[in-house]
Every structure is written in structure tokens, then in C-alpha cells.
Fold these 3 entries.
Entry 1:
Amino acid sequence: MKLLKLILLYLFLISSAQADTIYELIKIPNLEIYNLKTENKLRYLNAKQAFTIGVDNNINCFKSSKQDLDKKYKIIEKNLNRYSQNFLKKINLKYIVMCEDLSISGINTAGIPDNVMKTLIVDIKFNDRYFERVLHHEVFHIINDSFKNIFNQQIWSSFNPKEFNYAECSTCTKKIGLETYSKTAGFITEYSQSTASEDMAEVFSHLMYGNLPATVDPILQKKIEFIKKGLLKIDENFIL
Amino acid sequence: MIEKIKASKSEKIIFIFVVILGLFSITSFVLLKDKCWVIKDKLVQAGDVEFGKKGNIDYGKIGTGKSGLGTIKSEVDKDFNYTKGSVGLARSLKYDTEDSQFFIILQDEPLYEGEYTPIGKVIFGLEALEKIKYLNKSEYVLRPDFINTLRLFN
């Protein structure tokens, strides 16, 4: 019995120490290592308890069950393995944090990217219908934040009809639909119409997921070419 | 005793200069801390030749000092296992800010791989580091332990 208690205490101390190291590196508490041995050196972490971060403690996420983690990890890894170690280094993404019921200022979100801390937080319980595509959408925000000059929002906005204006922010509009339009008119989803960066992320995610509509209009075609060229500027070996 | 791994030219230059200048002699050890906590048995850090020298310690700034010899580029792509006794160069949140400060870990830290530039491993005497003075509740330790001398062996 005493030996069992000592073993449990030892495991607890090791776990606490690793959680402290994780916090030291990426400033998110209550995480543990899920998997470090990956092809492209991405490091997967998961919430072992709920955590709260952000300037006004406005970001919250909760612990997932092992079963859910294991199931979703396979999907996440399969999709993120498409990014090479070299590319990930260039865009400054290293840590994937898996948790559920992720929200920012009370609004549920699929992911929160942070290229400064090299981290992408992923809500593993996000709508299964869009889950895989949305992973790439969130990765694009990391790409965009690391290469704002390549993915210039003014140039992007100039592709749109003159009378069109994006909203001030992605949550300042009711345009949140993620269903892919079968007939496009410069935009691939309703959510694309929220902001320029969301529009770019939606186009990119469709390119990666491979579910572009059968026919695209000339404006959307320009946007697709813009994204493709931008990616090749970052990494000439990037494969869509 | 630290066995040095094959370092880049820039790492060698700054490390050798700092040792030759004797700047490393008598700098204090700092227990890694983040605002309010200190973790015993985790890591010791030294090399703050600006604010950590005996007789000239600035408790408010220790851990933030520079050598005055410039910073060097991070080299975190080397295959290196951060096992207990590994030595690495400290940096700020940004890469390419390594200077004279270095740390020695007292437990395995696999997350440090790819984060910190490795420079060697302790091959003898690690148990001495485990006796470095620390204090759980304070931000700093009064009358800390110091490095007496540091020598580079080829």
C-alpha cells in the first residue's frame, strides 16, 4: 500500500513538472504531453484540466476524455502531417493543444492560433462535418500572421466587387455559415464574407481539403491563384 | 564536468571569449523561476555576467543580464536528447537571443528539444548541482551559491 502511494506520488510529481515545463514554453496551464514523436516534429498536448488564458481570462477550454482524444488525434495528425517540418518552422507552428468546448469571450470557436507562442488550440468536439477542413483553416491563420506581407489584405480585398465591404471583425457579423457554395460569386462560403483573413482561410482550407466547387467564378479563381502563389513564396516545395 | 558537444563557430566564439575574460568566474546560480514559483530539482541557470557577479549582484535584474559580446543564433535543429544533466543556452521568448546565460537540467526535459540550443552534458558531478541553494517562497535567494571557476577542455 505504501509502495503504491509512493508510485502515485512520483507520477504526480513528474506530471506536475512536465505541466510546469509546458507552461514555461507556451504559457498555457493544465496541459500534459500527448505525443512528441511525430514525423514533422509537431508536438501534441492535451488539457488535463480545464484552462483559462487570455488578457481578460477570456479564453476557456476543457479537458476531453481519453477516448475522444485518441479518436480525434488520428484525424488531426493525418491532416497536419501534410505540412512538412520545414514549412511548419517557417510559419512558426510547433504545438497543438487539444481540448473541447473552446470559447473566446463566450463565443465558441474551432481553434485559436497564436504564431508568437507557436501554438494552435483545437476544439476536438467542433462540428464533425467541417472538422478536418477547419484544421487547415486555422493553420492558415498561423500562416497569415507569420506572412502578412505575402497575404496582403488590401490586395485581397481589391479582388471583390467595389460595392462589397467586409465586417470589422469575424464575430461582428452573422455570416458564419461553413457550407461550401455550389454556385460561387467571389466567395466560397458564407463565412468567407466576414473578413479578408477569414476569406483567405476559407479558400486555403478548401484547397487543402480538396472540396472546391466544380466551377468557380473569375473572382474566386483570382483568390485561389493568390493563395497558391503566396504559399509557393513561403515554400517552393509546398504541395496542395 | 561538462562534456561539450560539437558547437557552431559562433557558439564557440562567444562561450570561449566569456570564459577567457573570466566573466564566468563567480557568477551566481539562479534557480529557474517564473514570477512566483521556483522548482527544486528541475534546473539551475547561471552565466549572468552583468547582474549575477559576486560583489555586484542586482537581485532585481538577475537573469536578465548580457555579456556585451552580442547574441548568437539559436541552433535548435540538432538531434539532441535533453536528458538529466544536459546543458543548454538560455534565451528570451524569441529565438536568436542566446548570450552568456546557460542552464543545466536536473531531470529529463523532452520538451526542451527544438527549443533551446544544446551545448553539452554533465558527465561528472551532477549531484553537486542538486545541492544548490533555493528557497520556495522568495523571488531570489540571499547569499546564493556561485561558480568558482569555469574551464573549457578540448
Note: Strands of chain B lie at 2-4, 30-31, 33-34, 37-38, 43-46, 86-89, 102-105, 118-122.
Entry 2:
Amino acid sequence: MSFREASNVCLVIVVAFFLSFPVASTMLNGAGLWLPEWLEVGNKASVLEMRNYTVLPELNKETIASGKYQAQYEKYLSDHVPMRDEVILANATLQRILIEIANSPKGYDCYPTYYESIILYTPRVQTLFRLPTVLDDKTVNTAAESLGGLQQLASDYPNTKFVIYIVQGGQYASVNPAYKYMHFATTGKDASQALMAPLYNGPSNISVLTTKCNSEQEYYSEFFHTDHHWNSKGAVSAYNAMATASGIPPLENPTRTDFPNDYLIGSYARWGLCLHEEPIFDLGGNGNELVIVNPDGTREPYTHSQWLDSTPPTRWYTFHDYFYEFLKSGSTIENDKANGSALLVSDSYGADLVPMLGSAYHNLSFVKDMHSDTKIDKSSSLRALLKQQDYDCVYIVASCNNYINQSKRSPGYFK
Amino acid sequence: MAFNIAVIGFFKYEGFLATNVNALLGTEAIPDLKLPLPIGISFYTLQALSYVVDVYRKEVPPQKNPLYLGMYVACFPQLIAGPIVRYKTIQDQVVGRKETLAGFADGMRLFIIGLAKKALLANTCAILATKMLSMGGPQIGAVGAWAGLIAYTFQIFFDFSGYSDMAIGLGRMMGFEYLRNFNYPYIAKSITEFWRRWHISLSTFFRDYVYIPLGGSRCSKTRNALNIAIVWAITGLWHGAAWNYVLWGVYYGALLICEKFIWGKSLGKAPAIVGHLYTIAIFVFGWSFFWITDVNTLVGFWKAMAGRYGMTGSSYMWELTAWEYWPLLLICAAASTPVAPFLKERLVARTESRKPSKIMQDGIANPRHLSTKGLATLEATPATPGRARALSTLQVIYDLALLALLLASCAAIVSGSYNPFIYFQF
């Protein structure tokens, strides 16, 4: 055999093996034959993507005719490639190297990543920022006018405290290094100030708060590097600020537990994959006396460790996932060891606050009305919620963007 | 022929016809059935048509075995995205082809190159192109508009030529020698030459089965110009059932007419760089018709290209997005020229201590050179053991590079299915 023939044979064998391997290993695995762990493809959930893998689709006439079978089978094969996580991470590493090379001539300290770049990667601090959202004055002013309706609401409910918290995370963080590249007047900091301005001179039962981070270091002690949400420390800071405003006990020296479990490392940013490891800790021990009353009336105890065993395994090391993912809007959290009642209207930032606020009140009503994807009835409003029940305090917690979106979706929501 | 044309007409153009006739008449005379388009219908229909016409013209004997005929029409490598294979080019191969290890391996090499073009270059260019072209002219300004269009230019080339390479490679693995479908079109010095290098199987199809039967160039100038216009209107319509594609076809038809009758000779005498720049500007601009289907958006985009909204538009945040792609665009620019095969030939020639062969250069310089032999191989006839060892080393390095490309391509494809549960947008 000549060398050329030998090289042809080698190439054919290697490529054929490589291309047939995913299907073959799936079949071997399915047949129950032993495979090394790193080749096993039977994992039910992805740690990297925080989701369950696609299962084999059901084969019938309807699924074939609609194309659902074919589409799901393709996803099934994609999900069950051996060493899939390692392949994705390797690809992400290569991309990060290419990005650094590409941006070195300009010396950018932050730049978008590949894949639908809305998240910026800052090599200097190993961080992701979202691309700053450009807000024009008209949009912000309209939202401020809508939010300003709270003045009337607060006047009509003088015995209820209103605590409005505007979160400056991600694309609204005033410390976002990408702002230097913008030449729009209205940025995150300006937008939050504009939103709050109409409420400063309002009734005395309104408190307006926002995130105060004067440096990147301060920001990243309270917000994730790899996501725009606050971490446990940031949630506690926000809670304590709100507690001071509403007169409930702040959380002092919370117990922190370190988790060595890889599942709890926070880095799920799809388009970043900056491979940065977050500090893993949890504020354990709070809220164990809570009972969740679902909208349908069923009751279940809140068990803090429940989310540790959830499937797919949660990535967050706070109670964020549990209360974001599983807590239904319209639920009530009950605590027999506390007094008073409160209403929490929020987006995803509010999820972290549920156990802390739930511990401070006898009952806490939770409404996800500030989510941008919530299908909100245009006639719904805070006033309608307040008519249902008397509250000692109403907490409204959301990002800048969601206040603006809310004012667009339901202009009368705050009136 | 009527049956073939009726099939593609029904599935592909029924909706287009219905929309336009109804708009013209102000009624709902023709119902829009919203038919799903059978995959690959545009390609295998033309293949079937070419067979029928060639048999009619007695250029090929009819294939009596329905299985062989079915294999020719529905051979899976080129079924979905071409190249459009003429029966006369493979009639001997249908029955008498030989599958060899060398052919199989060479086909595999070409397949890997095609896969890399698609997965690594085309898909990544698509991200930049989509981002720029969907932002709207006023936001991105002239620089952003041209950057997006250039990215789309590369996307469409590597997407299409990548698929063609994969199809040709798969065919080679089965013993078929398909003809080349792309011969470095972006190095053309005129639009006439461009269309001899781009989607060769399609342009030759319309030349042989529409243009020449209409009279071709063997008629008056007026008639010749009309023939060109008809062919290119049909070519545009073939690409898609929408007016922007017809406009695209008419755009090229008009330019080809102008080159043939007005400035073609002057262009031929001009320095090569003039021809290159002229051709690049035309085909890059031409892709804007392909991407943008809405007239208002298209006009806005053209304004942006002309600098109407300034160089950077209303926000130069896009610059942060686009800047990371410059290495990719450089690689794409190099990959769309024959730099790689020239270097390969020089390296092999040096290994063999001979002068570089002119065959490769001639093959690239001549748009009509359609053979795909040598596209993915290191051809050599070493005469001494020393040269054999050097060439063996080169072969190993080449194959390892191809394997690395295969790994990177597969990693890119797997990563493309990365689909985490995300709520970052909340």
C-alpha cells in the first residue's frame, strides 16, 4: 500500500468514525451497553444550559405530518452528542480568543460576543454587560408620567406605604463601561432618575429607591458578572434599603453557606459563555417557616433545600430560580410568626426578595405583573389589586426597562 | 416539459400569482393556497427538464431503466441545493462509475472543505449580516450598511459554494464526477465573467435551454437584448417568488446588456483593478435586492449606503458589534480568492522541486474550466524517495488540517443548538 493509499484509509476511517459516533453511541447507550461516563449520552438535563434535554419524539401520523417529529428528532440528536458540554465550551473558548484578537487593535475594554451580540464581554474584569439600551427622552418621559400616577394612588391609600425600587442592572448599570461608546443623552442612570423624579415630591407614604453602585467593583459585589441580576448580596442590600423605607426589620449578618456543587456555578449566559466562575453561596436558613398558597388554593411549605434537588438542576445559588420558576403570580406567602400584609409587584428581580419579605409579613401577595412577557390585561392596575385587600405596604420592584414596558403595555397601571 | 413547469409553477408561484392578480383586479379571484414548498423543487425540476430536452434533441440516448433515471433526478447530494447536473455529463457514470478509495477519500476532503465554508464562514457572516441589515439604514450609516452588505456577500457565497462543495464531494465519494459550480466568482473583472463563475450550472442551464432557443446572440441587437432581458427576468424569478428577485434579475440583465453593447470593450481594455472594483461594487450592491424585500426598507438602506445618514448613523453602538468580525471578513476575502489553491500548488511544486503547474492557474483564470479534479487533493508524482517523504509529510499536515476543520465545523454546529433556559431579557 502506498503512502497516499494509507493516508486515504486513515482519513476515511477517522472521519467515518467521527461522524457516525454520535448515532452509534446513542444506540449503544440505548442498548444498555457499558460506555465510559464521558461518552454517555443519556443525561436527562444539561448543567450548562439549565434545561432538560430533548426526549425522543412520539412517532405518529400527526407528529410526522406536522413536522414536529422531524424537528424534535433533530433536536434530540443535537442534545445527545457525546461530550456536548465540552464541545460547546471549547467552541466558546475559541470564540473568546478570536474576540480578544479582533478587539486588540482598538483596545476595547468591552465588546459584544458572537451569537446575537447583545451582551458585552469585558476581558478586563471578566464580566458581561448587556449592550446599553438606548432610551429616547419621549419614551422615558412617557413612562415617568405613567409612574407618576402613583402619587394619586398613594394619596388615595394614605395608610399604605409604597416602596418603589428601580433596579439598575446590566444594560442600565451606571457603571456599564459601554456607556462611554454611546452618544445618546438618555442612559440607564438618566432614565432611572427621570422615572423617579415625579415621585420625589409626592405623598409622604411613597419611597423611591434605586441601586447605588459607584464603581464596577461595587457593582460586581452585588450583581452577577455573567448576568444582569443581583446576587444574594445584592438582593440583601436591596431588601435592607426597602426595609428601612417601609419600617420592617432589616436582615443583618445573614448566614451564608458555600456550595461546592458545580451545578450551582452561575454562568448560563448563552451568548457570552465567558467561562467565568461566580462565587457560590446561598443565604440559607431564611423562610423555612413559610407556606406558599397557590392561586388555586393549594398549600405547600417552602422548603429551602427543595430547589437543590430540582430538575433541571438550578444554576443560581440563591432562591431565585425557585421563586422565579415555580412561584405562580397570584400566590400568597404566609408566615404565622409575623404580622402585617404586603404586596410585591415585580419582575424577575423580585424573586430573590420573596423569602425575605415573606418572613417579615404574615402574608405577602406576589404578582409578576412587571414581567415584559406577561400577558397583561390592559385594564389591570395596582388600584384593582389594592381594592381586593388592604396592605400595609406595596413593594414595586423592577428594572428600568420593565417600568417603561409596563407603561406601554398598560398606561393606567400605576394610577 | 409542461408537466415539469406546471409542478414548479404550482408549488412555487401559485401564491405569488394569486397575490398579484388579486391586487391587480381588486378581488380574491385566485385563492392563495399557501402551499408548502417541496424541498429542492427548483433544482430537480430543472434537472428533469434538461434531461427531457437533451433526449428530444438527441444529445443523449434516453435512459430506459427507471431506477437509473430516478437516481439521476433524485441523487441526494445535489437534490436540495444543486449543482444542477446535466444528464449528458454523467450518463456514463450512472452505470459505469467506479467507486475507489482514492475517490472516496478525495470526496471526503472536498466535503470537509464545503462543511467548513458553511459552518464556520457562512454561518458566522450571517450573524453580522443579519444584525447590520436588520437595524435599518438610519441607525448604521454608510459604514454599517456596506459592512453588513459585504458580510451578506460572503455569507451567500460561502453558503452556496459550501453546499456545492459538499454535494460534489459526496458525489465523488459515490464515484460521480460532478462539474464545478463556483469558480471564484468574486475575482471576476466584469459582470459577464461573474456569471460565468457564479452558479455555473444555473447560468449554463438558462443559456442552453432558454437563451439559445430564443435566438441567443445570432439575431439583431434589439432581439439579442430582449433575449438577455427575458432570460434574466426568468433567472430572477427562479430564485424566488417575489418582486425583489425579479428586480434583481432585471438589474443583472440590464448590466449584461450594457456590458455587451455599450461599455464591455472599454472595460476589457481598462486595467484589471478597474474591472475588479467595478464588478465588486455591482455584485455587492446587487445582494441588497436579495436581502431586503420591502421597497421602503430597501430605499432607506440605499440611502444609508450613499451616506445619507452619515458615516456611522444615529448610533455607533453597532461598531462594537461589527468590529469583532474584521478577522473573519479578512479570512472570507482571502478564501473567496484562489490564494489557497495557488499556495497549495506552489508548496507541492517546491516539494517536488519543479515549477508550479499552470493548470491550476489556468483553471481558475478560465471561467469555463469546470473540472473539479484537484480541488481537494495534493497531486504529485514524486520521483525520488526524498520528495516522497516531503510530500507524505505535506499530505499528513493537509489531512490533519482538514480534520481540525471538521472538528471546528462540528463544534460550531453543535454550539448552534445551544439553547439554555434564559430569562436574561426580563
Note: Chain A touches chain B through 68 residues (CB under 8 Å).
Entry 3:
Amino acid sequence: MKPKYRINDLEYEVSPVRNGGALTLEIDGRQHLVSLSGNENPRLLTIDGKSYEVFTAAAEDQIYLRLNNHDYQLSAIDPIAAAASDKKGTDTMIAPMPGVVVSLAISAGDEVKAGQILLTIESMKLQTAIIAERDGVIAVIGFKETETFDKGAVLIRFEDQDS
Amino acid sequence: MNRLGDPTKLEAELKDMDQASVIRRVLIANRGEIARRILRTLKRLNIESVVVYHAIDKSAPFIAEADIACEISGDTPTGAYLDIEQIVEIALANKVDAIHPGYGFLAENGDFADALTRAGLCFIGPSAATIRLLGDKVASREFVEEHGFPLAPSVPDQADETTLLAAAEGIGFPVLIKAAAGGGGKGMHIVHEAKEFPGAFALASSEAQRFFGDERVYCEKYVAQPRHIEVQVLADSAGNCVHLGERECSVQRRFQKVIEETPAPNLSAVTREKICTTAVDIAKAANYLNAGTVEFIMDADENFYFLEMNTRLQVEHPVTEMTTGIDLVEQQIRVAEGHSLPFTQADIEFSGHAIELRICAEDPDNDFFPVTGRVAYLAEARGEGIRVDSALAAGSEISAAFDPMLLKLIAHGESRNSARERLIKALEEQVILGLTTNSAFLRRLLAHPQFISGNTHTHFIPDHAESLQPPSIDAAELTAILAAAALSDPKFTVMLQRTPALHGAIGHWRNK
């Protein structure tokens, strides 16, 4: 499988191709002569004869770059993990941003109706009410009052609708 | 200055020394960039330092920079910094003379100032009574009104929701619902029409309770397209009070300041003099002590109205320091020791222009939602006229526990444009990788024609949202980004090295 990188919700394939004495990469279907100097920032990227000063850092499956005075974050996609995707949809309420739980209005096992306030979170010095999008039964509450969570954390999991 | 030839001055200095007490050790009841900034002055003045930190900050640079560091704990990291008893205990155990509260946390908490006084410790700031008077938005407005200073129309008393709504209708929408004991832009909601009122009231009261322990809210007329202009004041115990100039803090989002500068652009000299003098008069009327800031809103005709007074050092104080050459923390300590101000209003000279940016861990393309992460790479801006007040080191963990502000980038120049250009260059040098920041957004702000003209008001960011959008990435740049990403990805380079067919392509020695 070809390596893929995601940036701004779009995925692109990048793979190496042998070509003479220099490295050629096939990026999104086109081939380019590429080199990236050194191990320390700032580094010099040369692609198709054009050079850019670039700062890079990698952590887990995230690549961070600064190029042309803009900062970018890319995800290196592991094709195998991507295939076994989570079934999310309406069974979970995901945190839209990092924050802290101010108060819980429900407990695990409660039956709730669409429009009902489930919990209140706080971030950026503002409070937001998290509201049930559908009728259902609360299976799991992800965090206790005063606990902090990151963006994308599962705040509430409903029991499966089919059950 | 010939000391020997001026007996009155010498006498005054001796008298001053007589009444002053020396502060030898200070506890900073704060963290991050402001703790580091205060530490810089303490070191310069040879004053010993004690800091308190929560475990979540354990590798933060401010800890190693202090002489003594003590861990604090609480239900939440913020809660630890609000625990008066714990902090007083640590101060006493470490034989501290004075406490500097920084900004936020307990900086404007009258109970904290009282607790320190009872424990025989010096609070670097005004008295508890002054904090209570001026820190309570309702009480301070009443005080200012009684003394005849200009005030924006508001409901005079905090009240229950029905009464407040009726009063709001009396003032006329739009109105602002604000926490009575609030500050720092927290717990504020704009209401455009009556049907929005109950929801906004509920949220504002809840936030007021949560942040300030007091659910009272009040409401005031919302001035459209206002400028936020504030004045730095400094007062000593002999009744002397001076101003150190005004600051323009209009460019904001969600009531949080994003850019601050001094002097305020396009402000007439007459109004500048008037607003600064008014601030000093307000401070004097309140028998103010130590450093503080009087905040005003100003309309397009340069009419200004008292907003609130902050009885502490402000986040944006560096711009004032850079145009006056005065170290505000040093002056705070000297006033706390009982010294008279070492300068009169006439002695204070203003030079050039300074602009400050707040670089925050947030995503401007996602409604400025805060982000968390770890600083994978850090390079700091340097250069002529640049000052960096930063909380960061490579590897710093940024969590949702504290404020998302990472650092302040300040530039001074002879003119506003020179400061602005230096700041843009500094943004290019300041590299933070590992989490999203508002850095590119700030760069677009600084380059915006309306900012260059100095046409700033508190609606600037929403009004110019379209033209502040990031440019789309062109095809050539996207290709470069992907190439750089792949070659920076350790898994990719390992794959390159392991695939025998490519060895020749990247020039590896075969027998390596």
C-alpha cells in the first residue's frame, strides 16, 4: 500500500520512485525530484529545482511543518488502521474542542430525549451545553465533573439504537 | 543632577528610605509567562524568588528559574492557584516578605489581600478595600458615577432576570450582560434582542459563579464599534499618582484581546491628555495604591466612558514598558516597600510605538477553538526592538487546564509602521511546531489595510472575517508540503532505507 498523508481533510499518496542518482517522489500521481537537507531546523527542501526553507517535526503519526510562513499539520495514514474504522455516527457525542466538564445532567443508564441537556462543558472561558441529538439510553459517560478532555474525546456514548 | 547642591531632594530621599521596608524574598502566586517575567525583574533587583506550581506544569521553565519552587495541589490545576490557605502557608513556611499575584487567579481577590495582611505578609498591589471597590463592576461604576466621571448607560443594580430584562429594554438593545465581580473578558454576553436574554442571562450567571464565586450579573448599553482604550496608572502611599500613557486594545475576539499597542493610533492629542488625566483622577479619587489600569470604551467621536478598573498588572503591560523605559514590576515592588515614586508626571518620557501580539494555542480556522498538544520544536524571535515573554520550552505540554496563551511577542519601533514591520518579521522567526497557533492569522491581521491605517475597533475581527481568511494553498505549495511531510516522516525514511531498489536513488553507501 502506498503511504498517504492527510491535510485539511484530503488525502494524498506519496511514494518513492527510483530515478537516476537523486530521489524522485510520486506525489498525488505526479513525479518530482526532491531533496530535504539536514536533520536540524531550518532545513532546505528542494523540489523540481525550487527551494524552500522549512521547519519540521514529527510526533506519533503527526507531521508538523512550517513552510512559506504557514504552519501545517499532516496525519500519516496507516492504511490498515484506516480500514477498520470506528462506527461512530449518532451513538457518540464527541467533544468539539478541549475543555473541562462543568456539570453532568444525567447518569449512565438514564433514558434521554432529543434536545435534552446532557452536560455542560467549559472552554475558552465560555460554557456550552451538550444536547442529545436523539432519544436514547446513556451507556457511558466519558468524564467526571472537573475532568479535562481533548478535542475529539468521547463525552457520551449511547447504547446501540438496534439494541 | 547634582545631589550635593539640592538639599531638599536629598532630604526627601532620606525620609523616603526611613519609611520604606525592604522586600528580600517574593512569592509569585502565578505561572507561565508572567511568572517568568516577574522572575526576570526579581533577579535583576537581587530579590529571592519562590514559585508555586501544579504537577501538570512540572517541566515548565518558570520552575527552574526560581530560587525555590513548591508544588501546590487542588481539585483542578486552576483550583490550586485559587487556594488561598495553601499559598499563605507556603509563603510563611518559606519566610517570604511579599507576594506578587501576577494577573488572573487571586490578583484581584480582596480575601487574598486580607489573608496576606493577617499573616503579616505584603501583597504587592492595592489594599483589599480598594480591590473590592474597584473589582466589583457594579460598585466601581457607582463610585465613578458619584464622582462625576463619564460612564456608559447601564442598569445601576444587579438584579434578577425579569428586572434586568425590563431595564435592558429601557436602555435599548443591544446590551451586554456582565458578571458583577468579573473581569478579563469572562462571563460576558452580548444580547441583541429580548428573546436571547434568558439564555444569555443563565450562561452569564453560571460563568460568574464559576469564575468569580459570585453569580450577580448586570447589564449595560453595548456601544457599537467601540475602541477599547485603557490607561496605565501608578500610585504610591504618599498620594502621588502618575499615568504611563494609554494603550489601544481594540482588536479582540470573544472579548479577549488579541493585539495591544501604544500609543493609540489616530487619537487626538487633546483626547489623549484628557483620557490619561481622567484615569489619574479616578485613581486618586479611590486613593489607589500601586499599579493599575483604567479601561474605557471610546466611540467614533472620541467620547469615552469608564468601563472598569483592573487593580493589577495587565497582560499587555510590556508595550508601556517599551515606550517609557520603566519596569512596572520594579515600580510595583518599590511602592510595596513604601517608597515614593521616583518620577513625576513631567519626568515620564514616551518614545516610539510598541505593539504586542498574544500567540495562543487555538485554531483560527475553527472559530478559534483552543487546541492541546506538545511543543515538538521551538525557535524564538530575536531582533532589534523585539521582546518575547514566553511560557514555552521545547517539549512543553499544553493542556486544557490553563489559558491557551503561549507567549507574547512585542515589537518597538520609532513609528507605528516600523513596530508593525518588526513584528511581522518576528512572527516569521517565531516557530512553534506541534500544535495549531494563531500565528499566521496574526500575520494577516498585521498586514490588513485597515489595521495599517489604524482603524481598529472591537468588531475588527468579525467585520473583516472574510479578508482575514487564510489564502488557499496552491498546487506547487501543496506538493512541496507533501514532499516535506513524507521526508520528515520517520516511517517513510525508514522505508526508503529498507527498500533495496532505492538505495542507489538516495545515494547510500552500499556497504553501510
Note: The radius of gyration of chain B is 25 Å.
